[in-house]
Amino acid sequence: MTTILVTGGTGTLGRHLTERLRADGHEVRVLSRHAQPYAVDLREGGSGLDDAVAGVDTVVHCATSPRGGDEKASRNLIAAARRAGVGHLVYISIVGVDRVPFGYYKSKLAVERLVEESGIGWTVLRTTQFHDLVLRVLQGMSRLPVMPLPARVKDQPIDVTEVAERLAELAQGAPAGRVDDMGGPEVRTFDSLARAYLRAAGRRRAVVRVPLRGAAYDAFRAGGHLAPERAVGTGTFDEFLTRRLGAAVTHR
């Protein structure tokens, strides 16, 4: 039986990954700021982090924050993993971090580099956006009388359970380096996703496409965050909405 540490194990992805690994018979430790007995703030490190990685065979690094601090947190984790003799470090990243000059993406790319240079056997998987994230964004936008959406931007959302399945496979295997990207089954315009959400939620909002400026927006508009050639996911956004909101969605 392998001992696997999952950072961010209480998050959207981490919960599914932890369940899958435990179902496969592994001892799984969940590290997050509030999960006992391994309640650790990775940005602070300390003895609690050393305790969490002691005797661990593989670390799956899912913890992240768009508010910053990922690089410091990852440096602390990698240092502790080296001290503990961890043999495999798996990192979940995002498609397009090397193509879209967006602040959060730059941080994810920097962490990829830290993982690659860690001296530990490593695996990096990049995926497109989770259905859950797209839903949260649309729910936030729908609080306004009019939903402002970035003009001419598409997305390729993927089901988080499928990502968890793939991560579990990678965590149970040998270090594989940068593996093939993983994208959702459909590339759709953002306003198409918004209209699907509004139908499923039974809400009425005007949808307005707003042109933006900047290098990041240009890269998103060019599809730098998409992986149409790696559309390996099977669960669609409409199916996700039906499960989550309990209403059938007609894609149009």
Largest sheet: 6 strands, parallel
Which sequence of SSEs, written as H and E, runs from N to C?
A: EHEHEHEHEHEEHEEHEHH
Give the oligomer, counting copies of the same chain as homo and different chains as hetero.
Answer: single chain
Could you give the count of β-strands? Answer: 10
CATH homologous superfamily assignment: NAD(P)-binding Rossmann-like Domain
Structure summarized in a few sentences:
This protein has one domain: Rossmann fold.
Overview of this protein structure:
By secondary structure, this protein is α/β, with parallel strands linked by helices. The protein has one domain (about 5-245): Rossmann fold, CATH 3.40.50.720. It is about 40% helix and about 15% strand. A 6-stranded parallel beta sheet has the order 2-1-3-4-5-8, with helices on both faces. Helix 1 crosses helix 6, helix 3 runs parallel beside helix 4 and helix 7 packs parallel to helix 9 (about 235-245). The model has no long low-confidence stretch (mean pLDDT about 95).
State the main characteristics.
252 residues; 9 helices; globular; 10 strands; protein-containing complex binding; NAD(P)-bd_dom_sf; Rossmann fold; alpha/beta; six-stranded parallel beta sheet
Q: What is this structure's SSE topology?
A:
Layout: E1 3-7, H1 12-23, E2 27-31, H2 47-53, E3 58-61, H3 70-84, E4 88-94, H4 103-116, E5 121-127, H5 131-141, E6 146-150, E7 154-155, H6 160-171, E8 177-178, E9 188-189, H7 190-201, E10 206-210, H8 215-221, H9 237-245
Parallel strand pairs: 1-2, 1-3, 3-4, 4-5, 5-8, 6-10
Antiparallel strand pairs: 7-9
Helix pairs in contact: 1-6, 3-4, 7-9
